[in-house]
Fold this sequence. Notes:
By secondary structure, the chain is mostly helical. It contains five helices and no strands. Helix content is about 80%, strand content about 0%.
Amino acid sequence: xxxxxxxxxxxxxSAKELVVDPKLYGPLRLVDAVSRLVTLLEKExxxxxxxxxxxxxxxxxxxxxxxxxxxxxxxxxxxxxxxxRQP
Length: 87
């Protein structure tokens, strides 16, 4: 349960920080939370290959927000399309 409490704590503290954070930090924090959730599922052997691939993609692209906002937004759009195509 510790991992879930850590994730919940991350989400709650992120909500508080979003009051003052730059606009694009919200999406960054959300995709980071997805990555953290998939990590928890992986530890429980409940993450399938799609989720593991999604996590890898998130971890590779999430920090684009710091260097290239347009690329980060495209990255988010690609994630949405990937999820939409998932059966």
